[in-house]
Automatic annotation (TrEMBL):
<dbReference type="InterPro" id="IPR050765">
    <property type="entry name" value="Riboflavin_Biosynth_HTPR"/>
</dbReference>
<dbReference type="InterPro" id="IPR002734">
    <property type="entry name" value="RibDG_C"/>
</dbReference>
<dbReference type="InterPro" id="IPR024072">
    <property type="entry name" value="DHFR-like_dom_sf"/>
</dbReference>
<protein>
    <submittedName>
        <fullName>Deaminase</fullName>
    </submittedName>
</protein>
<feature type="domain" description="Bacterial bifunctional deaminase-reductase C-terminal">
    <location>
        <begin position="3"/>
        <end position="173"/>
    </location>
</feature>
<dbReference type="GO" id="GO:0008703">
    <property type="term" value="F:5-amino-6-(5-phosphoribosylamino)uracil reductase activity"/>
</dbReference>
<dbReference type="GO" id="GO:0009231">
    <property type="term" value="P:riboflavin biosynthetic process"/>
</dbReference>
<dbReference type="Pfam" id="PF01872">
    <property type="entry name" value="RibD_C"/>
</dbReference>
């Protein structure tokens, strides 16, 4: 069975939206780990908000430059959880039909490598509650973003996680990987 791995950039104060603050921290070490993630995944899952942002940004990037990752993101099989998107324009994108938990359960049962998911919102929260997220990787950035509308990614999810690994980059970014704890 395939694994569903969530990878989320987050500030010290819990902000995940519009991660423009990540740029100074995306060095060779971060690029290497990001490449390991994409090398291990042959599908990407996202919610509508993530799709709307990525589908505008990635197609305009140079696919001939391997350092951008654009060739991967523009060509990987993409699945969008949305009840309003009907005609996705981004290459290799399919809108999941019907119940999200059932659709993702079917995706995970298919042959293939991991399914990667970026960002942490309502789709991830639903999948964590259903026991379908195998691992979350929080890229904790040494930034306080502040603002009036902070997103707390785990606000309505009560799940315990076991730490399965950490990577500390010279830039100060910490990638903490967790597996949902199974009830004993």
């Amino acid at each position: 069975m395939r694994k569903l791995i969530n990878s989320t950039y987050i500030t010290l104060d819990g902000v995940i939206e519009n991660p423009m603050w990540t740029s100074p921290y995306f060095d060779e070490e971060a690029a290497s780990f990001a490449g390991e993630q994409t090398d291990g995944a042959d599908a990407m899952l996202m919610g509508r908000a993530t799709y709307d942002g990525m589908s505008v940004a990635w197609p305009s990037m140079d696919e001939s430059d391997p350092s951008t990752g654009a060739a991967y993101f523009n060509n990987v099989r993409k699945y969008v959880a949305s009840t309003t998107l009907t005609n996705p324009t981004w290459n290799n994108t399919e809108v999941l039909q019907g119940d999200l938990v059932e659709a993702v359960t079917r995706l995970k049962a298919q042959e293939g490598r991991n399914i990667i998911q970026y960002g942490y919102g309502s789709v991830t929260a639903q999948l964590v509650r259903a026991g379908l997220v195998d691992e979350v990787r929080f890229w904790i950035h040494p930034v306080l973003q502040g603002g009036d509308s902070l997103t707390t990614p785990l606000a309505d999810v009560q799940t315990s996680f076991d730490l399965i690994g950490t990577r500390v980059h010279k830039s100060g970014v910490i990638i903490a990987s967790y597996r949902p704890r199974t009830a004993a």
